[in-house]
Design brief:
With 162 residues, the chain is mainly beta. The protein has a single domain, classed as NigD-like, C-terminal beta sandwich domain (Immunoglobulin-like). Helix content is 13%, strand content 43%. A 4-stranded mixed sheet has the order 1-6-3-2, with no helix packed on it. It is elongated and about 55 Å long.
Length: 162
C-alpha cells in the first residue's frame, strides 16, 4: 500500500518536472509562430556594430548562389536572435587564378568579417542550429567579379566567383 502511494507520488513528481521543464521559457516553443525562429535569407552584409555579442558557434560555411551561408549553433528559445556580418577590413591580398598558367593570377583583397550574435537577453538554454545567409554582391571586387573572405574565428579563406 505504501509502495503504491510512493510510486504514484513519484509519477506525479516526474510529470510535474517534465511540465516545468517544457514551460521554463516564457513562451511555449510549440505555440510560436514559425517566423519567430526564421532568419532572412541572404540579407545584406552589415557594416555597423552595436556592441552586443552573445555566444554561438559556426558549424558550417558554404556559398549558395551569391550568398554566404553559415550554419550557426546557439542557445536560446525565448527571444528572437539577430545575426549580423560585420566587415572588419581588408587584411591582405590573395592571388586568384582566372586563366591558365601563372599569368592568370590577379591580386584580390582579402576581406575579414566577424559574425555578431545578439540574443536580445534570451536566458533560455535550448540549443538551436540554423542557417543564416548574407548577400555578397555589395562586397565583391568589381574588377574581377570575385570575393575573398576570411571569417574571424575560423581557419582558412573562402573564394567566391560571381
Amino acid at each position: 500500500m505504501i509502495n503504491q502511494k510512493l510510486n504514484s507520488l513519484v509519477r506525479v513528481l516526474a510529470l510535474l518536472v517534465v511540465v516545468l521543464a517544457h514551460t521554463s521559457c516564457s513562451q511555449d516553443l510549440e505555440d510560436q509562430d514559425a517566423a519567430f525562429f526564421s532568419y532572412p535569407s541572404c540579407s545584406d552584409a552589415i557594416f555597423e556594430y552595436n556592441g552586443i555579442e552573445d555566444s554561438f558557434e559556426i558549424l558550417g560555411v558554404e556559398f549558395v548562389g551569391d550568398c554566404l551561408e553559415l550554419v550557426i549553433g546557439y542557445p536560446g528559445g525565448c527571444e528572437q536572435h539577430e545575426f549580423q556580418l560585420l566587415k572588419v577590413g581588408d587584411v591582405g591580398l590573395e592571388f586568384v587564378g582566372f586563366g591558365t598558367g601563372s599569368l592568370g593570377l590577379v591580386p584580390v583583397p582579402i576581406q575579414e568579417f566577424r559574425l555578431i550574435h545578439n540574443s536580445n537577453g534570451d536566458a533560455c538554454r535550448a540549443y538551436f542550429e540554423t542557417p543564416v545567409s548574407f548577400d555578397l554582391n555589395s562586397i565583391k571586387d568589381e574588377t574581377n567579379e570575385v570575393v575573398v573572405l576570411q571569417i574571424d574565428g575560423l581557419p582558412g579563406k573562402w573564394v567566391h566567383n560571381f
